[in-house]
Description:
The chain is α+β, with helices and mostly antiparallel strands.
Amino acid sequence: MSGDPFFEMLATDDPVPILQRLRATDPVHRVEPLGFWLVTRHDDIKTLFHDPEQRVSPDKRLWSSYVPPPEGSLLRWADDHGMMALSPQDHARVRRLVSAAFTPRAVRRMENQIREVVDRVAAPLRNRSGEVLDLFADFTQIVPNSVISRITGVPPGDDEERFRELSQSVISAFVPFTPPDLQKQAEASFQELSVWVRELVAKRRTTPEEDLITDLVHAEDADDRLNEDDIVLLLTGIVGAGTETTALGGATIIRMLLGLPEAAARLRADPPLIHRSINEILRYAFVSPAGPQRYAVRDFELRGSRVCEGDMLMLALGGANYDPAVYPNPDRLDFDRDVRDFATFGSGPHYCLGANLARCEIGCMVEALLEILPPGSRVREDQIEYQDAGFFRRALDLPVEVGPAPAGA
Length: 409
């Protein structure tokens, strides 16, 4: 598979130059070894999210290379009934009901829970000057899973750890080209997670608590309510969107900031700036050539390329985030930039309902990490271990040598 620009980007820490070349010369690039199209221009990606011409769908069952999970499995059930498989009308219905659960009061509660989790996980990492900490294993991986646990109502401790293990296993099954052994493991985890969620739903129907499951159980729109299956699938999606991606994103951002000491110093001096400029931080840090997938429901032409029914199109968020047609001087981290038409959280009917919570969570993580890591802290690039996950090269850790404590600290 070597030789294709897509795989060259996956093998490097800086895919931006290759993304720029593709966006300029081949904006709808055919990744021939895997048979999908890589879309890199911001306007095309935004259009495909909205899709007013109904050319594509997020339903992976339409993919010509789709291999359905075994009949009767939970993964098959999720493929057939999950949010991406719903008709536009049913999708809008579920979104309305989920939105009803995100009341201002509920969002304030969730934001408080995020801050409590971040403070708890950060506490043992403070005052560790001179040590090398694995901030992925000890912080950015723990926080998102613990936040999801707290928000949904899973108590801290052993239950939270088990919930985290199951969640990470299930997520792997929803990524294209996942190996069969991981699919099998994910099915077993999904079975256990489903039982757990259904038990929580039953409890919250009779004994409400201050958590998201209670909010979803009691959400209503006119006379409509979510059923138990809806809630299981929604929580699976929330876990998928709010754990692994956030963990990797937090690690990517802190690695980026430690390589830009002046930017890190400005954020340390003005912590509220982190939250005001979080869109720009996410735009600049998220340079991955990969992204959400769409599947052609009919033949159509895009930028001169002939897309056929059943083709997969991968929306390169890194391409959109660095498109100079939308962001002048995209290679510069500009905390004063007004970031609009931001593609990372989707757009239109599939815009992420938890986007504001994700911004809050990542902002709190960055704020805590910059407090933990004084000036002079550095990523130990020589100690990072990598793993091939499908066609992705994934860092397994984030070793950071903590700088000397500031004078007088």
